[in-house]
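About this split. The held-out portion is used to measure sequence recovery: a designer receives only the C-alpha coordinates and must propose an amino acid at every position. Recovery is the fraction of positions where the proposal matches the reference. Here is one held-out target exactly as it appears in the evaluation file.
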Protein backbone atom coordinates (compact mmCIF):
# COMPACT_ATOMS: atom_id res chain seq x y z
CA UNK A 1 0.00 0.00 0.00
CA UNK A 2 0.95 3.62 -0.56
CA UNK A 3 0.09 5.39 2.70
CA UNK A 4 -0.21 9.08 3.55
CA UNK A 5 0.35 9.56 7.28
CA UNK A 6 -1.08 12.80 8.68
CA UNK A 7 0.00 14.09 12.07
CA UNK A 8 3.29 14.00 13.96
CA UNK A 9 2.35 12.27 17.21
CA UNK A 10 4.25 9.29 18.59
CA UNK A 11 1.77 6.81 17.10
CA UNK A 12 2.17 8.34 13.63
CA UNK A 13 5.96 8.31 13.89
CA UNK A 14 6.00 4.61 14.74
CA UNK A 15 3.49 3.93 11.97
CA UNK A 16 5.87 5.57 9.50
CA UNK A 17 8.64 3.22 10.71
CA UNK A 18 6.46 0.10 10.62
CA UNK A 19 5.03 0.58 7.13
CA UNK A 20 8.28 -0.04 5.17
CA UNK A 21 9.06 -3.09 7.32
CA UNK A 22 5.77 -4.63 6.24
CA UNK A 23 6.04 -3.76 2.57
CA UNK A 24 4.19 -0.43 2.50
CA UNK A 25 5.50 2.93 1.31
CA UNK A 26 4.79 6.38 2.75
CA UNK A 27 5.36 8.82 -0.14
CA UNK A 28 4.82 12.54 0.27
CA UNK A 29 2.97 12.77 -3.02
CA UNK A 30 -0.05 10.85 -4.28
CA UNK A 31 -1.76 8.85 -5.37
CA UNK A 32 -2.22 6.99 -2.08
CA UNK A 33 -4.15 3.85 -1.28
CA UNK A 34 -4.95 5.20 2.18
CA UNK A 35 -4.64 8.45 4.09
CA UNK A 36 -4.35 8.05 7.87
CA UNK A 37 -5.54 10.82 10.18
CA UNK A 38 -4.54 11.31 13.85
CA UNK A 39 -6.52 9.34 16.45
CA UNK A 40 -8.72 9.22 18.44
CA UNK A 41 -10.09 12.57 17.24
CA UNK A 42 -9.38 13.08 13.58
CA UNK A 43 -9.03 16.30 11.63
CA UNK A 44 -7.70 17.22 8.21
CA UNK A 45 -5.84 20.34 7.18
CA UNK A 46 -7.02 22.28 4.16
CA UNK A 47 -3.71 21.71 2.35
CA UNK A 48 -3.97 17.93 2.68
CA UNK A 49 -7.67 17.92 1.84
CA UNK A 50 -6.95 19.59 -1.49
CA UNK A 51 -4.59 16.75 -2.43
CA UNK A 52 -7.06 13.92 -1.82
CA UNK A 53 -8.98 12.75 -4.89
CA UNK A 54 -12.52 11.48 -5.10
CA UNK A 55 -12.79 7.93 -3.76
CA UNK A 56 -9.82 8.36 -1.41
CA UNK A 57 -9.86 5.93 1.54
CA UNK A 58 -9.29 7.84 4.77
CA UNK A 59 -8.59 6.05 8.06
CA UNK A 60 -10.08 8.11 10.88
CA UNK A 61 -11.46 8.05 14.40
CA UNK A 62 -14.04 10.47 15.72
CA UNK A 63 -14.78 13.30 13.29
CA UNK A 64 -16.83 16.49 13.42
CA UNK A 65 -19.72 17.55 11.22
CA UNK A 66 -17.47 19.71 9.03
CA UNK A 67 -15.27 16.76 8.11
CA UNK A 68 -18.26 14.50 7.47
CA UNK A 69 -19.82 17.09 5.19
CA UNK A 70 -16.57 17.61 3.27
CA UNK A 71 -16.02 13.85 2.92
CA UNK A 72 -19.48 13.44 1.43
CA UNK A 73 -19.02 16.39 -0.89
CA UNK A 74 -15.67 15.14 -2.20
CA UNK A 75 -16.65 11.50 -2.40
CA UNK A 76 -14.05 10.23 0.07
CA UNK A 77 -14.41 6.82 1.76
CA UNK A 78 -13.89 7.21 5.52
CA UNK A 79 -12.66 4.03 7.22
CA UNK A 80 -13.72 4.45 10.83
CA UNK A 81 -11.47 2.40 13.08
CA UNK A 82 -13.77 2.78 16.08
CA UNK A 83 -16.43 0.81 14.21
CA UNK A 84 -14.12 -2.18 13.74
CA UNK A 85 -14.63 -4.87 16.40
CA UNK A 86 -11.09 -6.27 16.27
CA UNK A 87 -9.49 -2.84 16.48
CA UNK A 88 -11.67 -1.65 19.35
CA UNK A 89 -11.01 -4.81 21.36
CA UNK A 90 -7.25 -4.48 20.93
CA UNK A 91 -7.42 -0.76 21.65
CA UNK A 92 -9.43 -1.42 24.82
CA UNK A 93 -6.69 -3.74 26.09
CA UNK A 94 -4.04 -1.09 25.45
CA UNK A 95 -6.18 1.56 27.15
CA UNK A 96 -6.69 -0.65 30.20
CA UNK A 97 -2.96 -1.30 30.55
CA UNK A 98 -2.23 2.41 30.19
CA UNK A 99 -4.85 3.22 32.81
CA UNK A 100 -3.14 0.94 35.32
CA UNK A 101 0.20 2.56 34.56
CA UNK A 102 -1.14 6.07 35.14
CA UNK A 103 -2.94 5.02 38.30
CA UNK A 104 0.09 3.35 39.89
CA UNK A 105 2.22 6.40 39.11
CA UNK A 106 -0.18 8.64 41.03
CA UNK A 107 -1.46 6.47 43.88
CA UNK A 108 0.11 6.47 47.33
CA UNK A 109 -0.34 2.70 47.62
CA UNK A 110 -0.13 -0.46 45.55
CA UNK A 111 -3.05 -1.69 43.48
CA UNK A 112 -2.86 -4.97 45.34
CA UNK A 113 -5.34 -4.75 48.18
CA UNK A 114 -6.76 -1.43 46.99
CA UNK A 115 -10.41 -0.62 46.40
CA UNK A 116 -11.13 0.40 42.80
CA UNK A 117 -14.29 1.59 41.09
CA UNK A 118 -14.75 1.11 37.33
CA UNK A 119 -17.61 3.17 35.90
CA UNK A 120 -18.99 1.66 32.71
CA UNK A 121 -18.72 -1.94 31.54
CA UNK A 122 -18.09 -1.69 27.83
CA UNK A 123 -14.93 -2.96 26.15
CA UNK A 124 -12.56 -0.75 28.13
CA UNK A 125 -14.41 -1.30 31.40
CA UNK A 126 -14.26 -5.08 30.99
CA UNK A 127 -10.58 -5.11 30.04
CA UNK A 128 -9.71 -2.80 32.93
CA UNK A 129 -11.71 -4.83 35.45
CA UNK A 130 -9.90 -8.02 34.44
CA UNK A 131 -6.47 -6.39 34.82
CA UNK A 132 -7.32 -4.87 38.19
CA UNK A 133 -8.44 -8.26 39.51
CA UNK A 134 -5.20 -9.82 38.27
CA UNK A 135 -3.26 -7.12 40.11
CA UNK A 136 -5.03 -8.06 43.35
CA UNK A 137 -7.38 -5.09 43.62
CA UNK A 138 -10.95 -5.34 44.85
CA UNK A 139 -13.08 -4.03 41.98
CA UNK A 140 -16.56 -2.55 42.08
CA UNK A 141 -18.25 -2.00 38.71
CA UNK A 142 -20.89 0.69 38.25
CA UNK A 143 -23.08 0.32 35.17
CA UNK A 144 -26.39 1.66 33.94
CA UNK A 145 -27.73 -1.56 32.40
CA UNK A 146 -28.89 -4.44 34.55
CA UNK A 147 -27.41 -6.88 32.04
CA UNK A 148 -23.99 -5.29 32.44
CA UNK A 149 -24.19 -5.46 36.23
CA UNK A 150 -25.13 -9.13 36.07
CA UNK A 151 -22.19 -9.82 33.77
CA UNK A 152 -19.84 -7.89 36.06
CA UNK A 153 -20.86 -10.05 39.01
CA UNK A 154 -22.17 -9.52 42.50
CA UNK A 155 -19.70 -6.75 43.33
CA UNK A 156 -21.47 -4.27 41.03
CA UNK A 157 -23.76 -1.30 41.54
CA UNK A 158 -26.00 0.97 39.51
CA UNK A 159 -24.90 4.44 38.53
CA UNK A 160 -27.28 5.86 41.15
CA UNK A 161 -25.43 3.95 43.89
CA UNK A 162 -22.02 5.45 43.10
CA UNK A 163 -22.11 8.01 45.98
CA UNK A 164 -22.54 5.14 48.44
CA UNK A 165 -19.34 3.36 47.37
CA UNK A 166 -17.11 6.36 46.64
CA UNK A 167 -15.96 6.98 50.24
CA UNK A 168 -14.05 3.69 50.40
CA UNK A 169 -12.32 3.93 47.00
CA UNK A 170 -8.58 4.31 46.46
CA UNK A 171 -8.96 4.75 42.67
CA UNK A 172 -11.86 5.52 40.34
CA UNK A 173 -11.73 4.88 36.59
CA UNK A 174 -14.46 6.37 34.40
CA UNK A 175 -15.12 4.99 30.92
CA UNK A 176 -18.53 6.61 30.33
CA UNK A 177 -18.59 9.58 27.88
CA UNK A 178 -21.36 11.35 29.81
CA UNK A 179 -21.43 13.30 33.10
CA UNK A 180 -21.48 10.84 36.01
CA UNK A 181 -19.27 12.45 38.67
CA UNK A 182 -20.33 16.02 39.30
CA UNK A 183 -19.71 18.18 42.34
CA UNK A 184 -22.35 16.41 44.42
CA UNK A 185 -20.85 12.97 43.78
CA UNK A 186 -17.26 14.17 44.10
CA UNK A 187 -17.92 15.40 47.64
CA UNK A 188 -18.02 11.72 48.64
CA UNK A 189 -14.46 11.11 47.39
CA UNK A 190 -11.68 11.03 49.95
CA UNK A 191 -8.63 13.25 49.28
CA UNK A 192 -6.22 10.34 48.75
CA UNK A 193 -8.34 8.77 45.99
CA UNK A 194 -7.09 9.01 42.39
CA UNK A 195 -9.70 9.81 39.73
CA UNK A 196 -8.91 8.88 36.13
CA UNK A 197 -11.24 9.72 33.24
CA UNK A 198 -10.67 7.47 30.22
CA UNK A 199 -13.75 8.55 28.28
CA UNK A 200 -14.01 10.72 25.21
CA UNK A 201 -15.80 14.08 25.24
CA UNK A 202 -17.95 15.17 26.99
CA UNK A 203 -16.13 12.97 29.55
CA UNK A 204 -17.58 11.75 32.84
CA UNK A 205 -15.75 13.60 35.61
CA UNK A 206 -16.26 17.29 36.30
CA UNK A 207 -12.60 18.31 36.36
CA UNK A 208 -13.32 21.86 37.49
CA UNK A 209 -15.32 20.61 40.46
CA UNK A 210 -12.63 18.08 41.31
CA UNK A 211 -9.96 20.78 41.27
CA UNK A 212 -12.09 23.06 43.44
CA UNK A 213 -12.47 20.24 45.96
CA UNK A 214 -8.72 19.56 45.98
CA UNK A 215 -9.04 16.09 44.48
CA UNK A 216 -6.49 14.23 42.36
CA UNK A 217 -8.30 13.97 39.02
CA UNK A 218 -6.72 13.30 35.62
CA UNK A 219 -8.13 13.33 32.09
CA UNK A 220 -6.54 10.42 30.23
CA UNK A 221 -8.51 9.91 27.04
CA UNK A 222 -6.60 8.58 24.02
CA UNK A 223 -4.13 6.67 26.19
CA UNK A 224 -2.74 4.12 23.68
CA UNK A 225 -1.15 6.75 21.46
CA UNK A 226 0.64 8.24 24.47
CA UNK A 227 1.29 5.31 26.79
CA UNK A 228 2.26 2.64 24.25
CA UNK A 229 2.52 4.35 20.83
CA UNK A 230 4.39 1.49 19.17
CA UNK A 231 1.70 -1.03 20.12
CA UNK A 232 -0.95 1.51 19.10
CA UNK A 233 0.72 1.87 15.70
CA UNK A 234 0.87 -1.92 15.26
CA UNK A 235 -2.83 -2.21 16.07
CA UNK A 236 -3.65 0.54 13.57
CA UNK A 237 -1.52 -0.99 10.83
CA UNK A 238 -3.17 -4.38 11.38
CA UNK A 239 -6.51 -2.68 10.77
CA UNK A 240 -5.22 -0.93 7.65
CA UNK A 241 -3.94 -4.19 6.20
CA UNK A 242 -7.28 -5.90 6.84
CA UNK A 243 -9.09 -3.08 5.08
CA UNK A 244 -6.54 -3.01 2.27
CA UNK A 245 -7.09 -6.67 1.52
CA UNK A 246 -10.87 -6.53 1.82
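Reference sequence for scoring:
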Amino acid sequence: MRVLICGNGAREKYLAELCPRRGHSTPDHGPWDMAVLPLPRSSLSEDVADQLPRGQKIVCGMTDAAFDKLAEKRGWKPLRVLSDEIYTQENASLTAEGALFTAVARMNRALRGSQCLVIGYGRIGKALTRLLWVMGATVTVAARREESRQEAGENSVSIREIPQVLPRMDAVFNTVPAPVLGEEELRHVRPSCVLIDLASAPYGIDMDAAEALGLKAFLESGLPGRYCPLSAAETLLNYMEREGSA
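Annotator remark: DSSP finds eleven helices and ten strands in the chain.
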